[in-house]
Amino acid sequence: SSAKVKSSVSLRRPFVTCLDRTYEVVDDPSTDSIISWSQSGKSFIVWNPSEFCKDLLHRCFGHHHFPLFTRTLNDYGIKKVDSELWEFADDDFVKGRPELIRNINNRGDSDSDSESRVSTRNTILKKKNNAESRVSTRVTIQTKKKKKKTNKLVAKAIAAQFQGLEI
């Protein structure tokens, strides 16, 4: 079944999307203790988010960040459906129907949304760089103050030694 899904995915598209990879992971029986279809097959559940992040997320998606995974699902309109579980659903993400995935579109695919995301990302990076620069400046100032204080103490100790030597 898993081989059938992989072949149908590769024939359908020239590249594999994150939804294809998610479908493959959910559909793989060897991962059922970590992530699997719900009983109805109309949703999937991440049973063990820490194991999912450690073992599967990096291998399939190139990162270890569960919030990024859930944000990506949300970008495609795949919603969390149970407040108690990490259960997600979409009408076109259904067990045994991988061909339906092509009906799911990234809601952020428009140019204005893309520009907005890039602008937001750049703003966040600038703020992060500014914060890192401020921290670096504070550390440098604190280091200089400590050196100045140490130099004063050394100078006092040397002066005290010379006073003791005077005749």
Q: By helix and strand content, what is the structural category?
A: alpha+beta
What order do the helices and strands follow? HHEEHHEEH
Number of helices: 5
Task: Note the gap between the termini.
Answer: 98 Å
Proportion of residues in β-strands: 5-15%
**Radius of gyration of CA atoms, rounded to a whole number:** 28 Å
Q: In this structure, how is the largest beta sheet organized?
A: 4 strands, antiparallel
Physical arrangement of strands within the biggest beta sheet = 1-2-4-3
Show unreliable segments: 1-15
Quick recap of the structure?
By secondary structure, the protein is α+β, with helices and mostly antiparallel strands. The protein is 59% helix and 9% strand.
Account of the protein in words:
By secondary structure, the chain is of the alpha+beta class. The protein contains 5 helices and 4 strands. It has helices spanning 2-12, 18-27, 49-61, 66-75, 111-165; strands at residues 35-37, 43-46, 79-82, 86-89. The chain has a 4-stranded antiparallel beta sheet.
Strand and helix map with partners:
Elements: H1 2-12, H2 18-27, E1 35-37, E2 43-46, H3 49-61, H4 66-75, E3 79-82, E4 86-89, H5 111-165
Antiparallel strand pairs: 1-2, 2-4, 3-4
Keywords, separated by commas or semicolons:
4-stranded antiparallel sheet, 5 helices, 4 strands, DNA-binding
